[in-house]
Amino acid sequence: MTNRRTAIITGSTSGIGLGVTQALAASGVNVTLNGFGDAAEIEEVRSDTARRFSVELRYSPADMSKPADIARMVQEAEAALGPTDILINNAGIQFVAPIGEFPVEKWNAIVAVNLSSAFHTTQAIVSGMKARGFGRIINIASGHALVASPFKSAYVASKHGVAGLTKTTALELAAHGITVNAICPGYVWTPLVAKQIPDQAKTRGVSEEEAKLALLATQPTRGFVEIDEVSSLALYLVGDIARSITGTCISIDRGWTAQ
Fold first, then answer.
1. Which of 59, 155, 187, 236 is catalytic?
2. What CA–CA distance (Å, rounded) separates 65 from 59?
């Protein structure tokens, strides 16, 4: 155990979460990463990142839809690395369907992972942050925390909920040296977005290329946001220089929500 800052980053075995993990590790932060995937690939990423940046990197397979798993993840992370200074709630899942046909089990799963898990992780670490007078909580929301799109009722509702949770938590913790912010990316080229393309194509009755272009049409610059743009913003927000930024939902969306 060291005196380095420590972080827990959910949904961090790929995509945005992995990018944020690597950015924080490069700045000297010890990290517990979390998520699903091939065990050998996750271990390769974990060990390679730890070696390259000379930090401690743990992996937790906790299921973010299960509060007991979340509690255990936090307990084990703090036993191994020390108190949590930085919490980044990034875990998220998606499903696309008209609301009249939206499976109830998909609704429940998306709300559990995208919204409720952020409540459970925050609740688990907040008393320690208050006692130490320092903390950085970042919720990775979405442009869909601010605006809506058809066929994504559960995702849009959950991300709007994340925005509300962010603001409420920020107000509660403002006097304790803890900042709470949401990053609201537009379409970032990640495995989650790539998976949406065939789903959107099927739902809309168009080709996959047309579905991809339809996504980009929402962003005036007609391009995807890059993972390193999001991870750089997260790195800024966890630093001391961002101590006055709290309760905000920061868009990084190539102009999408300005429309």
1. 155
2. 17
